[in-house]
Structure formats: C-alpha cells, structure tokens
Amino acid sequence: MGRVSNKYVAIGAIPFVITELAYWYIIIFVGGTAGVYVSFLSIVLACLFALVYADWGHLKRPTTFINLALLGTVAADYFLILQEDKLNGMICFSVVQLLYFAYLMATAKSKKERVTNIVVRAIAVFAAEAAMLAVLREKTDAVSALSLFYIANLAVNMLFAYAQGKKRLLFAIGLTLFLLCDLCVGLSSGYLPFPEGSFLHSIPFGGLVWVFYLPSQTLIPLHLAFENRKKVA
Q: Residue-wise over 19-55: b if at least 16 C-beta within 10 A, else e?
C-alpha cells in the first residue's frame, strides 16, 4: 500500500515540480509583464495541486488547514501581485499563518506542546509589535502592524514544524523559505537603509523574493500530498 501510494503522489508531483521550475525560471530570468502573471499562476497551480491531493473523504483531517491556507495564499497574492493592495494582502497572509498554526496545533503530540506553542507565539507577537513601535514610531501603520504579526506567526510556525520531526520536514523547509522570502521583502522595503558601498547595500534583496517564495509554495503542497498519500491511494 505504501509503495502504491507514493507512486500515486509521484504521478502528479513530478509534472507539478517541473512546471513550477519552468515558472520559477520565467519569473527570475524573464520578468516583465509575463513574469507578473506567471507569478500569480504559479501560486494558483500550487493551490490546485494541493486540492487534487486533499483528503476529500476526511475533511476534518489536519491537512485541510493547509488546503485553506493555500487558498488564502492565492487571495493574498491576488491583492499583492495583481492589485498592489498591501493591506488586504497582509490580512490574507496573516490568516494563512493562523491556519498553519491551527494545523500545527492539530498535529501536536501533547497538550504541553500546544500550550508551549500558544505561549511562545504570544511572546513573539508582542515582542515584534513592541519593536515595531519603538523603531517606526509615527511611521507605524496598519500594514506594518499586520506585517509584524504575520512574520512573528510565520517564524513560530517554522520552529514548531521542525519540532514535530521528520513528518513535517517538507512543511518546515517550506516555511523556512517562506520566511527568507519575507525577510528579503522587508530588507528591500527601505525601512532599514544600508550605507552606500556596504556589502548589504549591494545585495538585490527585492530580486531574491521569488527565489525563495515559489520553492516554499511548491514544498508545502508536496508535504500535504505525501501526508495524505495513504488516504488517496
């Protein structure tokens, strides 16, 4: 049963990964108008792939939270890529991380792990928002507040995904790349200007965003497919 299940996943996973690699090449090396629409299309494809491998007979399974999160990611990128609407984009991305939080709570091995997750998350969010207020002061706005809330939740999700071991490894690596993507977004935003001539000033952080982002959105649905493999075979 296990071998059959893995083959079933591979039938869809191989063309999915190849297609996403082609999209990644267009986004990174071609760019322009084509790159913009391919960027959004690549996220839609990741969501559709995950929907194909959803466990439709057991929608109460934890992986359903991943399916919902990937739908939220499509909505977020619709606002950010096609509409250039940062506020609604960050609202959607915040909901995405809360859905990943729900997934990790549902897959936690003990009550202690769930309580620890909540406590660490609360501290991380408070610290992030306090740091934002200290640094930005009068420049603080809703987008900044949501961005720090989102980043704090993403970082905690990543840590607890690794803590759950090899069963969540693809998911954890996907969240790590997700976080690296968002760090590049933050470093390219101008909030932390680097001195001209410095090493950090020379790094094209904006150009690195999709280097990390699309691989992250490829690994997360792959994790879902392999976690559901026994049910869909």
A: ebeebbebbeeeeeeeeeebbeebbebbbebbeebbb
